[in-house]
Amino acid sequence: MTRPQHLGSAPPANDRSIDSFALRSYILTMRTAKRPPDQTGVTILKQMQKHEWSFEFPRITDEVDEQLEIAIDWMRYDVRIAKRMFRELIGKYPEHVDAYHHLALTWYRQGNMAKAAKVWKHGTEFALKLFPANFSMKRDRLMWGFLENRPFLRLY
């Protein structure tokens, strides 16, 4: 096996966890905002049919997904680089729930179940805060058949 040729963008200088201040500020803004989440440009959970919903991630472009794929490739070769890349994605795109999932997988595969659970929980709680008020976990469904739902469903 050869190492991936492209590392994506440079890893952050600070190897600390997700920028919690920025994340808390964003969550607080989302909680207190008068406008619905679909006007933030971050995450849209839209109703497809009665009780069926689908995610849209307008900021997650093909280029951003390519960065995720590169980080996933690095999981096989150098977990530290992969973790930095996942953290960088989460820092720039806190709605990128697949980045949370794969960061948690790196911890899980290293045998650190507590850190993996913490990342999975953090990502899930963040995503749930973006759900519209009229979404009901008891009544409504996020179907696996909608590809856009799969990142959240893997995380949840």
In short:
With 156 residues, the protein is mostly helical. Helix content is 49%, strand content 8%. It has a single domain, classed as Serine Threonine Protein Phosphatase 5, Tetratricopeptide repeat (Alpha Horseshoe), CATH 1.25.40.
Q: What's the architecture, going by CATH?
A: Alpha Horseshoe
Q: How many individual domains?
A: 1
Fourth CATH level, the homologous superfamily: Tetratricopeptide repeat domain
Q: Give the CATH topology.
A: Serine Threonine Protein Phosphatase 5, Tetratricopeptide repeat
Helix coverage percent: 40-55%
Mean pLDDT: 79
Low confidence ranges:
1-7, 9-19, 22-40
> Topology as H/E string?
HEEHHHHEH
**Strand order of the main beta sheet, please?**
1-2-3
Q: Distance between the terminal alpha carbons, to the nearest Å?
A: 32 Å
Task: Please give the CATH class.
Answer: Mainly Alpha
The fraction of residues assigned to DSSP E strands is: 5-15%
- Please give the largest β-sheet: 3 strands, mixed
Computed over alpha carbons, the radius of gyration is: 16 Å
Instruction: Based on Cα principal axes, name the global outline.
Output: globular
Number of strands: 3
Plain-language structure description:
This protein has helices spanning 20-32, 62-74, 79-92, 97-109, 113-129, 150-155; strands at 44-49, 52-56, 141-142. The protein is mainly alpha-helical and 156 residues long. The model is unreliable at 1-7, 9-19 and 22-40 (pLDDT under 50). α4 (97-109) packs antiparallel against α5. It has one domain (43-155): Alpha Horseshoe (Serine Threonine Protein Phosphatase 5, Tetratricopeptide repeat). Strands 1-2-3 form a three-stranded mixed sheet, with no helix packed on it. It is built from six helices and three strands, in the order αββααααβα.
